[in-house]
Amino acid sequence: MKAAPTIKRHMIAVLVDNEPGVLARVIGLFSGRGYNIESLTVSEVDADVGLSRINLVTIGTPMVIEQIKNQLDRLVPVHTVHDLTEEGPHVEAELVLVKVVGVGDKRVEALRIADIFGAKVDDTTLESFIFRLDGQTEKIDRFIELMRPLGLVEVARTGGVAISRGSEGIKPLASTWSVSE
pTM of this prediction? Predict the structure, then answer.
C-alpha cells in the first residue's frame, strides 16, 4: 500500500508591484483552485520602485505547493516567489493583541502568564488588559489557550512573516536594492 503524500505548512514570500488589484489576483488564484491561506500579510518594502511583499502561509502536499508557486510566478505583477520553508533556515514571527477581562485571581493569573511569555501590557482598565506578544505561531497559540479560561474576549493577529537567514535576501529580478557599506 502506497503512503499518502505528506501535507506540510509552508511560508511563501512573494515580491509584487505595489498597485491596485494585485492582492485580489493572488487571493483569486488561491480561491479559484480551492487552496487555503492560513495567514496573509502585505506591506510595501520599497516605495521608490513601488514594490510590496506578500507573506502567506498555506498547507499542502509537495505537488500542491509546487502548483501554487508556479501559478503565483506566472502572475504579471509578481517579481519573485520564494518558499522559505524549502529554501532553508529562516526566522518566522507574528504579533498578537489579546484582550482579557477578569477580576481577582483571574486578573493576577493573566498577569503572571503574560510575564512568563514576555507579553507587554498595552492597555489596562479596572476590568481588562490588552496584552501584546510577538514570536513564533506556536508560542502565540499556547498563550491564547492559556488566556481562554482567564477571560479572553478578543484576539487580533497579524499572521506570520518570515525572512531567510544569512547574508542573501529576496530581491526583485531587476534589483534597485544594494547592500550598504
Answer: 0.83
